[in-house]
């Protein structure tokens, strides 16, 4: 069913979309913390030259302390994993 057809079908109905990863920032700070820190603070990642290493360290530290309202750590993880997959 296309998006427009689905929208027409659901018009007038109230529903809540399930978002299983809506709280991924907390997930990054708890269960995935070792993976996040190990990936973004790895010397390979810090020496790529995309970003200033101190800025990356600061963003990760702020995120782990409860900040990161714009999801920057998630964006950095995406870029680093992409680089490892397609550029190395």
Low-confidence stretches: none
Shape: globular
Q: What is the percent of helical residues?
A: 55-70%
The figure for the number of domains is: 1
Alpha carbon gap, first and last residue: 39 Å
Oligomerization status of the protein chains: single chain
User: Could you tell me the mean pLDDT?
Assistant: 83
Question: Care to describe what's here?
Answer:
The mean pLDDT is 83. The N and C termini lie far apart (39 Å). The chain has helices spanning 3-10, 24-29, 33-40, 43-46, 53-64, 72-86. The chain is globular. The chain contains 6 helices and no strands. It is mainly alpha-helical.
Summarize this structure as a short list of keywords or feature phrases.
mainly alpha; globular; 88 residues
In short:
This protein has helices at 3-10, 24-29, 33-40, 43-46, 53-64, 72-86.
What does the secondary structure layout of this molecule look like, with pairings?
Elements (H helix, E strand, L loop, with lengths): L2 H8 L13 H6 L3 H8 L2 H4 L6 H12 L7 H15 L2
Helix pairs in contact: 3-5
């Amino acid at each position: 069913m296309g998006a427009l057809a689905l929208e027409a079908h659901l018009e007038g109905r109230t529903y809540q979309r399930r978002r299983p990863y809506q709280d991924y920032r907390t997930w990054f700070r708890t269960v995935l913390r070792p993976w996040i820190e190990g990936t973004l603070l790895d010397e390979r990642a810090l020496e790529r030259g995309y970003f200033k290493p101190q800025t990356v360290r600061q963003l990760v530290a702020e995120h782990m302390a409860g900040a990161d309202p714009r999801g920057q750590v998630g964006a950095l993880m995406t870029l680093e994993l992409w680089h490892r997959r397609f550029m190395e």
